[in-house]
Amino acid sequence: MSDSLPSVQVIDRLIFLLDVLAKEGGRASLKVLAAVTGLAPSTAFRILAAAQSNGLLVRDETGLYRFGDRLAEWGRLTYGKIDLRTIAKPVMVWLRDQVNETVNLSVRQGDDVLYVERVSSSRMMRVEQVIGSRAPLHTTAVGKLMLAEQGKTWTQAYAARTGLPALTDHTLHDYPSLWKNIEDALQLGFARDEEEAEIGVGCLAVLVRTTLPCHCGLSISAPLNRLKEDWIPFLQDAARRIEKRAQGESIVVPLENL
Predict the structure, then answer these.
(1) What is the reported pTM?
(2) What is the pLDDT of residues 175-210, one digit of tens each?
(3) Rounded to 5 degrees, what angle do the CA atoms 134, 136, 100 make?
(4) How many whole angstroms separate alpha carbon 223 and alpha carbon 145?
(5) Residue 150 in contact with residue 174, Cβ under 8 Å?
(6) Which CATH architecture describes the domain 81-257?
(7) What is the fold of 7-67?
(8) Which of 2, 99, 82, 90 is nearest to 254 (CA)?
(9) Which residues touch 162 (CB under 8 Å, ≥6 apart)?
(10) Where do the domains of the chain lie?
(11) Which parts of the chain sit beneath pLDDT 70?
């Protein structure tokens, strides 16, 4: 096949690649995209590279493609801005009812996790993150996943500029230990915090992939002695439900209302 493609054909193939990327959950490798679309890898690579140079796609350090900020900006012009908390709250209530522990929604803001919504447990002894409160990324389960999303180089720079301050004796405050913990979380599909931000408190977290420039996090917080990995399927199911509710919408988090 010639290296040059008719312009209309290129647009058709780009749209096909973007559709497949969406069906793959917003992240996919060149191998997968080429295989599903039936395009030659060299052809798919050229089209994806052009999309990347124009801000439509981003390719992370692991070689996976994901949607770029430019598409999100276009979406905000096409659709009304919808508050992420409005979409997530009913699902968070459902998750809270499954585990009877506090459920949190958070976003990354700079080097911190920012808690933007919460559904509290009915238990007398419960963990509650204050809406609008912050925590350093490396001290929380969801923050570790957000660091993973930024990649190894970004995480190394984060460690250098922050010094990885310890909030408790259990905080991972050296880079090798932190990155090993992050890699383990990626393998498992969820992250865990064991008294790393607060003594006696544990947390389980997953990412929620939306049109936000940085993916948000969904987590369950509980006294450490009550934390159960049996909750992970519920947590992952809730994240997918929020993603489905947010699909096709332009999502915002109006921080001035926190």
Answers:
(1) 0.67
(2) 999 999 999 999 999 999 999 999 999 999 999 988
(3) 60
(4) 21
(5) no
(6) 2-Layer Sandwich (3.30)
(7) Arc Repressor Mutant, subunit A (1.10.10)
(8) 82
(9) 111, 136, 138
(10) 7-67, 81-257
(11) 1-7, 69, 72-81, 213-214, 248-251, 254-258
